[in-house]
Amino acid sequence: MIKLLGLIDSIFLIGIIFLRIPKESMGLTSFATKIDLFGSTILAERSLNILTAFGILIYFGIAIQLNLSNN
Fold it and tell me: Residues 32-49: what's their mean pLDDT?
């Protein structure tokens, strides 16, 4: 079960990282305007920062748990 959650979190983090394309290439701006999921690029960037931090914390927790269970 923990391995499945780790896999899902890894895929989630990869997706979030792909959304965080530098502003010069218009990745985040294009995403925010096409999808209209976020109100502005500032809100989109803040939301992605929060989601990324949350995903990383979950990833570290799962990695520690898996490491402790293997010992």
Answer: 66
